[in-house]
Design brief:
Length: about 450
């Protein structure tokens, strides 16, 4: 605030300013305060751990799990459906393998269609608890058959990828969590139960969910979910490396267990080899197989048994799962040094409502860092008039600068360090600048976030 020069009397200003300051203090945010630092933004020098290459997933191991699922179905009325003994027997088989491999397993019960359902969750100890990478598959089948492609294939491949993590004693940067869902065939009920019962703070830690439902179809296509770009790219890059063309899965929305995760804003992706839709001639040209025939003629049928699998497709997709787990699981939870900037000028009204400027962050995984750099460039005479806050995507305010009766210097060009580790990285961040004292005006020239 500036009185006209002849009227300026430090005491008066200080008194009035103090009053303004006091008022300002009454309304000041009580949110966590930033640690002000005037150092220029510097790219974080933290070394980026190189992504270790995933091991080959032995097809024979995956098929051995399928053989077990087939035997379980045969011993339990011919199916592995929700509410039937074959489902729980399938879960017990998978759980035993994971317990023996050092995973921390949890069986989550729920009720669906008056029957008890079960999800199996397996956590690999270690990794950043604030950046959880999940991979999952539904373990149940339909009542009409053993459900080997749908979805023993996804369940077996995810299991073998988890066992490969154990064999490698992988120490990923992210925390790895694997899941086998119940009652998917009744309407994605197991995964919905899991997500609906996951506290918001825990959901925010899930950096991505990878879904695998039908990945060994006998007349296979190679479809990649067109959801999170980073996940989609990870899968596409793998198949490009194999020289196998892919198509985006356009009908996947809402069709499998990734839906519950996507609905709460968690990045998702996955792979699919097709169900009852018919392979076109063009697709047969690029992938082989039979045009005019369904990708899986035994979809939801009694013939969906251990012979209803294309080994090449199952092998490629199993290896793609391992590639994604290793790649996404060992990359930095937040790649250091990424800068997001808004350089649009915004006028700051004198002694009035706050001026705001936004930056939308996307494509990142997990939470923002504990050392989020906020670079601010404001032109304003008598900067003591200004209160500056960073507002996180969920609305949490972080005070960067308080108003000050004694700070008659001009302009705010500074970098603040904010502990934003409780905030999800993706979303719209806002710089809020309020002039709380009459006279003196200015503008936001621009600002930036450095992760
Ligand atoms: N609903 C799945 C099969 C299925 C159909 N379309 C897609 C797309 C993406 C994943 C799975 C599916 C089931 O019957 O389990
Ligand atoms: Ca393999
Ligand atoms: Zn199905
Ligand atoms: Zn399925």
């Amino acid at each position: 605030m500036r009185l006209s020069a002849p009227d300026r009397a430090p005491g008066v200003r200080r008194l009035v300013a103090c009053a303004v300051l006091a008022l300002g203090g009454l309304f000041a945010s009580t949110a966590p305060t930033a640690v002000a630092a005037s150092t220029p933004p510097t790219a974080l020098a933290a070394p980026v751990p190189s992504a270790t290459a995933a091991p080959d997933i032995p097809l024979a191991n995956v098929k051995a799990h399928l053989s077990q699922f087939g035997s379980i179905a045969a011993a339990n009325g011919g199916n592995r459906a929700h509410g039937r003994p074959g489902y729980k027997a399938s879960l017990d088989y998978v759980k035993a393998k994971l317990d023996a491999a050092g995973f921390t397993t949890t069986v989550q019960q729920f009720t669906a269609s008056s029957a008890t359902g079960y999800n199996l969750i397996a956590d690999w100890p270690g990794g950043d608890p604030n950046a959880v990478l999940m991979a999952g598959a539904h373990l149940d089948g339909v009542t009409s058959g053993p459900g080997i492609n749908d979805n023993g294939s996804g369940s077996a491949a995810v299991l073998e990828s988890a066992l490969a993590v154990s064999r490698a004693q992988l120490q990923p940067t992210k925390h790895l969590r694997f899941a086998w869902w119940g009652a998917e065939e009744l309407g994605l009920l197991g995964s919905k139960h899991y997500v609906n019962n996951l506290p918001a703070a825990e959901r925010a830690k899930v950096s991505g969910y990878l879904n695998f439902d039908m990945i060994g179809s006998p007349n296979p296509g190679y479809f990649v979910y067109d959801d999170d770009p980073a996940i989609e790219k990870t899968f596409k890059d793998y198949f490009t490396g194999l020289g196998v063309p892919t198509e985006i899965e356009t009908e996947g929305d809402g069709r499998s267990d990734h839906a519950a995760f996507k609905n709460v804003g968690i990045p998702v992706g996955g792979l699919f080899t097709g169900a009852s839709r018919t392979k076109t001639s063009a697709q047969a040209q690029k992938w082989g197989g039979t045009a005019g025939q369904a990708f899986d003629r035994c979809y939801h049928s009694s013939c969906d048994g251990t012979a209803n699998i294309n080994d090449t497709a199952l092998d490629r997709n199993s290896d793609a799962i391992a590639h994604a787990v290793w790649t996404l699981g060992t990359e930095p939870a937040i790649p250091p040094g990424d800068v997001y900037e808004n350089t649009t000028d915004v006028a700051i009204p004198d002694n009035a409502a706050a001026a705001t400027s936004t930056i939308t962050v996307s494509g990142r995984t997990g939470n923002a860092p504990a050392t989020l750099k906020v670079g601010v460039d404001i032109t304003h005479t008598w900067r003591g008039d200004l209160v500056v806050d960073l507002i996180a995507p969920d609305g949490t305010a972080y005070r960067l600068k308080n108003s000050s009766a004694n700070d008659s210097a001009d302009n705010v060009v500074a970098t603040y360090t904010v502990n934003a580790s409780a905030e999800t990285a993706n979303g719209t961040w806002t710089l809020r600048v309020q002039d709380v004292a009459a006279q003196d005006t200015g503008r936001i020239n621009g600002w930036k976030l450095t992760f």
